[in-house]
Amino acid sequence: MTSFPSLRRLNVSYTLVHVVYWALFAVFAGYQTSLLLGRGFTSGEAGVFASIRCFAGILAQPLLGGWADRHPEVPIKRLLNVCLVLALGVNGVFYATRPGFWGTAVIFLALGILELNAYPLLDSMAVQFIAAGVPVSYSLSRGLGSLSYALACVVCGQQAVRFGTESLLLTHMALLVLMIAAVALYPAFPREALPPRAQGQQPHSILYILKSSRSFTLTLVSLFFALAAIMPIVSFMVNLVTDRGGDQGHLGLALFLMGASELPAALLFTPLFRRFGAAGTLRISICFMAVKPLLFLLAPGLTGLLLVQPIQLLGYGLFTPASVYYANANVAPEDQVKGQSIMMIASNGLGAMFGNFLAGYAIDWGGAGAMLGMCLAFGVIGVLFMLAAWRSKQ
Question: Which distant-in-sequence residues (6+ apart) come within 8 Å of 277 by Cβ?
């Protein structure tokens, strides 16, 4: 008989991992543009670096996901901690040096491979238990992670004002150390509970997975454009805030309001999931992700910019848990880790890379308004592909 860890221990451990991960994610992702601008790079170059970081994750995620599917006997948390230890070293190099364009590009490439891969691996750590019938509180853990993100943004905003943006790299490294410890404490999935694999059965290729479901593939395309619509707003929030007369302190407040709004999504997700299923809830989130750049475009002044931040609740806030459950329901058991990776590749990977790359140059060309107009166009395209996916399923 399989002996699972207590549900209390599992949920507390998983919540701790999310809380620490999203705090360290906030420190870097929320302030990377400010850091790069402070080092003398342009907005366009900052967009290139952000895209490189996403692209690196795209390259590495299917490789790591495929390896994890082929070697289920190796705990996912062990693979994750290897990445985090290496990421700690890369961050140390970035803090201690002032590389030029190509050196910074290499560092962002390494961080994309090592840190962004934590996201799908983190999801897979819970999916293993959920697929085995253990009711892990994923949405609540993710919601508390969003609250952690929000609080970290406020604290880091004040830290940047007082000690400078460079000091945030030290905070980021400290959180990486804490993350490594939290992952080490997380219970490994019992080997005896691993689903039996038919003789000769192997994980499928990405092409096979995409060909097997037209609806799944169209949904991935929809998410590509939806994330291209909202990720530049996060990456270049500093430009939106300063364009309306704010400073680093206001940037921290804006990011706090955005992140904190994801916590209620953890409570809202469960009734929506029961009513509409993972696919229906995902469609709702795509629609609100498309609305987000429109609201930012219409927001008057700094106060208006702050007031529209909670739209994150119904957009990205619902997307995160819905996408995990959607991928789990639409991918074969032997492809579970790779399925989560594909979902992250299409959305937070390719979508974010595409959006960030063009957004930096849009700002250099026409300012923050031009970037938001571009994001709005991407959001509309995402909704159209979502409708096509819905229709193909009927």
Answer: none
First to last CA, the chain: 41
Chain length of the chain: 394
The CA-based diameter of the chain, rounded to the nearest angstrom, is: 64
The residue that leads in pLDDT, 119 or 241, is: 241
Give, as one character, the DSSP assignment of residue 199.
Answer: T
Best CA proximity match to 172, nearest among 70, 87, 283, 248: 87
Whether residue 36 contacts residue 28, with contact meaning beta carbons closer than 8 Å, is answered with no
Three-class secondary structure of residue 235 per DSSP? helix
Q: Is the pLDDT of residue 53 over 70?
A: yes
Give percent of the chain above pLDDT 90: 25
Kind plus residue range of the DSSP H or E element containing 105: helix 101-114
Alpha-carbon dihedral sign for residues 283, 286, 292, 295: negative
pTM score of the predicted model? 0.71
Measure the CA–CA gap between 298 and 33, rounded to whole angstroms.
23
Q: How many CB atoms lie within 10 A of CB 78?
A: 11
For residue 140, give both structure tokens.
Answer: 């609540």
CA distance 235 to 308: 17
pLDDT, residue 199, reads 47
Whole-angstrom distance, CA of residue 133 vs CA of residue 137: 12
